[in-house]
Structure formats: structure tokens, C-alpha cells
Design brief:
This protein is an all-alpha fold. It is built from 17 helices and 2 strands. It is 65% helix and 1% strand.
Amino acid sequence: MTVEAFGVIVAGAFGAAIGSFLNVVIFRLPRGLSIREPRWSFCPRCRTQIRPRHNLPIIGWFILRGKCAACGQPISAIYPTIEALTALLFMVVWDALFVMRQLPAVDSPLSDWGLLLAWLSLFACLLAISAMDIESYMIDVRALNLAMVIGVVGHTLWWMSRGAEFAGPFLFGKDGSAGFIPSVVPRDVPRNLIDTPPPAIALAACAAGVAWALTALVLRWFGVKPLTEEAAASEESPGAEADDHRESDQTAYLTGGAGGFRPAPVILLCLVILVLGGWQFAEAQGWLGASLDRWRGVLGAVSLMAAVVASSLDVREADEQIIEEIESERPQARRVAMIEFAHFLPALGVGFGLLFYYGSQHLLDTPLDALLGAPAGAAWAPALGGALYAGSGMVLGAAIGWFVRIGGTLAFGKEAFGSGDIFILGAIGACLGFWGAFFSFFLSVFLALAGVLTTSFAKKSRALPFGPWLTLGAIVYLWVGPFIAAYFSSAANAIWDLFYASGPAAS
């Protein structure tokens, strides 16, 4: 058995176990409960501790036939569904990295475990906040902050493990080929804006992020709470009135509500996992050709989209509550957007100022070690390069969200994009890079539109939780990212030529 084939089994089992923990996170965080105390799982209704054999991922729910062993009340199918979806996500990530090898630079789990850690952490956090968003339009940004930190650390460790070759940027060629290029980039090497951001751009983005953080600290020092911070707090801690609505929605959601034991959807999802896992295992063993491998991504994405669509069919009190909140804030929406924009002016000044300086000095394509005046091939360059890559992806990914939020609010006169969704884009950028966040956002828009059209016959609410669609967009990006890069490569190369000033070759 190959390592890749064995990893499919481990990824599925590990994902189901992590999904069991995600159920704890999904239930406790919105209620302000600790995820550490008590250390055991309990029934949401009677609070009785669940026995270990009943707490087995997916299987335990079937053993109990969807009812609490102590009080006999229904246990929602959402519990095994979350566990199964986590298993599916982990298998899809493993497939993309080590079976399909969507990134040419990836060799094996032993050398690329830092990247694997970042990707698995990202999608585990995205699944948890998606479940919260679907049921209560509430995103706990602490989970996303954790994903950002792990993304930066994971990429740093990954680049360190690969050594000096990672001091250079990642290159998508004009013909769609991809790979890492040396730290010293000759001027005649084709470059485009779909490459890993050059060190100068990454440094400018990270400096802008630091400037924003310092601005927030200064405002807090003078007793002014940045509206960006207030927005994040509102995502974590809704008002008392909203709590009443959202608590009742989640209680019904997590305790099963009315109805008997209905295992068919969970069984169907488990069958999809078995089919997908068997397919991945067979290809990893070399038993199948690669001609149909892309269809595995389609199967995984369709399964996840079906879960999102099915969950959005129910009409909840929180649907109308969130619409009322947005409408009540409409009169001052544009003023708030302008104040938010004002808080970003120092960061924008620092970022664009550095970018202008590097461009005027012909440094936009200079390797990191030369840019910082260090000897060529400095030992610390890969580590710092990985941190800069993830950090710039986080800052620029969040910037996409803020641009949409502020621009859309000014254009339409009401909140156009939730602040929690901005944190999602920041987490995606930290783990998948800026272009991962960029294309995930646009993919999510089309996927959400398709979902709205699909559910228009049954969905009666105008509300749409966007977090799950951003998550789905990131999953789809894992499979279509190389195709997107190849398709836009020539156009991006032309844009790069406009940005890039000719000058003496980097050395």
C-alpha cells in the first residue's frame, strides 16, 4: 500500500474525529460556553454525559438511533452530518495535495506536512463557522483567527522544510505549467500577477497590515473603538434580542426538533464518502488512469453544495432578524462605511507608499535576500518568505472583503458584506494565498447565485448566509485553481508588464 493510498484512509478517519470536536465548537461557542469545560460531550437537552461508545463519530448516532440514551429526546442528524462532512473535506484536501498533486512543488506528507496542517486547519474552521452562519448568521471570528495563525506558521514551516528553493516565487508559466523558480529571477523569465506575490509586494502588504493594527491600538489608546473591531465583536456577540431568536433556532437545530429517526441523508453522505475514498485509494495505488480524476473534485463539490442547499431550505426566525438588523442600520450605513474607510487610510498610505518606492527603484521583482541586503541564499530566507507569503495573503484577502463591504455599502446604502465574511477571506488568504482568496470569492458568488436559483422555489426568506458559499468556493478552488491560472496567465502577464519597470537584472 502506498503512503498516498494509506493517507486517504487516515484522512477520512481523522476528519470524522475532528468533526466530533467541531460539533462541540458549533454548539458551545455561540452560547458563550467553554470548549474545555466540561471535557466530555453531553446531551443538549438533559445535559447528561454521553458514554464513550455512543460518542463514536457517525457510528454512535446510529447506535442510539438518533435519541439520547438518558432522556430519549431526538438528537439532530446534524451531528453525524458534520462528522461526515469533515471526513469528506479532509479526504478532498489529501487528494488535492498528494493524489492529484495540484501543487507541483508538493512531494510527500513527510516534507509537506506544514502545508497539509494549514489546509486541514482552514477547512475545519470554515466548516464550523459555516454551520454557525447557516443557523444563526453569527460567525465566531476566534476560529478564523486560529486558522490565520496556523496558516502563517504552517507556511513558514513548509518553506523551511523545503530549503533555499522556496526563496523564489511560485511561477505559473504562460503554457499553464507551474513550479518554483530560483531565488534569483532573470529578467527574461516570464512573470505574471498570478505568481506568488514577489517579495516587494508581500512586504508592502504585510506592512499595511501592521499599520492597520497599530492604528487600531492608537484609537483604542485614545478611547475610540475602531468600527472594524466593533463589527467583529458584533459577529461574536449579538445583542440580547438577537440571542433570543438565534438561541431558539440553534436549540431546534442541534436537538433534532420534531420528527423520528431519519438516517437516509446521513447514509447517502456516507456512501458518497465511500465511493470518493475508494476512487482516491484506487488511483493512489495506480490501479486507475488519471483521465477521470477531475470528476472526483466535481463529486466532492456537488456533495458539499447539496448539503449547503439542503440546509438553506428551512426558514428560521434568524432569517428575518438579520434582515431587520440590516434595515435598521440603513440610515447610517454610508456614514459608517466612510468612517471604516478613514480607519484604513494609514494602512493604505503605508502599503502604496512602499509599493511606489519599490517600483521607482526597480525592486518589484528583486529576491527577498537581495531586497533586505542579505547574502544570496540566506538560510532564513525560506522561513521569512513563507511567513510573508501567508501574511500578505491574509492581508490582501481581507482587503478584498473590506473593498466589497465599503464599496457595496456606499453604492447601495446598506451593509453589503458581513464583517465575519471578511475574516473568512483573511483565513483563506493565509492558507491558500492571495489568489486563493481572490478566486474563492468570485467562485463563491457564482455558486451562491446557483444556490439561490436552485432554492428559489422553496426558500421564502431574502436572507443568505454567505460564509458557507465562501467555504465551498475555497473547496472548488483546490481543483480548478491550476486551470484558472493557466486560463488567465497570458492576460496576467500583460498586466505584470505594465506594472514592472525594466531595469538592470536582479543579482
